[in-house]
Here is the input.
Amino acid sequence: MKVALFVPCYVDQFYPKAAIATLELLEKLGVEVHYPKNQTCCGQPMANSGYEHLTTGCNNLFIDNFSGYDYIVCPSGSCTLHIKEHLHSPQSEDKATEIRKRVYELTEFLVDILHVEHLEASFPHKVGLHQSCHGLRGLHIAQMSELVAPAFSKPAKLLDMVQGLQLVQLGRQDDCCGFGGTFCVAEEAVSSKMGKDRVDDHIEHGAEYITSADLSCLMHMEGILRRQNSNVKVIHVAEILNHSIQ
Here is the structure.
């Protein structure tokens, strides 16, 4: 299969190791990966701020970059969901529709498309899994705890394949971290308190690392951890799944 790697702008700027880990992981699993070099912001910040009508340029550029691939894989739940739900173009709506059907967040691609059942990975640490709102309630890569329904989590399923990794049980497994994109700018006090509560849950249960499929959430919590001079680190799920793979 021919897969295009969609690397969100904030991942490219602040967490390039997560993008590299995603690339390496996919290639080691036998995927032919391409990186469209002209890609840039998908337009999510504008859309979240009420200016979706100004994202036409971003949409058209995304369509130009990512048309013609079997799948598009992204190490960010929020950006993936934005493309799935908001990519449109009056000039190329047929191409936009195809792209919306073919874009996947990394863990859902590994579970639903590649059907990964085994990983030669090792990460001997206690890890807390943050299930982001976009992934949980938008992409449905895990079941919301408030629903009376069978529990599942695609990121947790993959993490369970990693040798030595101990997934800690949190008190509130799917609370929002408070980031919310531009919410953390408009409502910084509320956002900060929510983030502190989320971080505290991981710390109280002995997590050495906090991981997630969404680096935006991890970036928010990392800022809080640094201000607290905490030894707890954040790490994208791709970096764990790719760790020590031969």
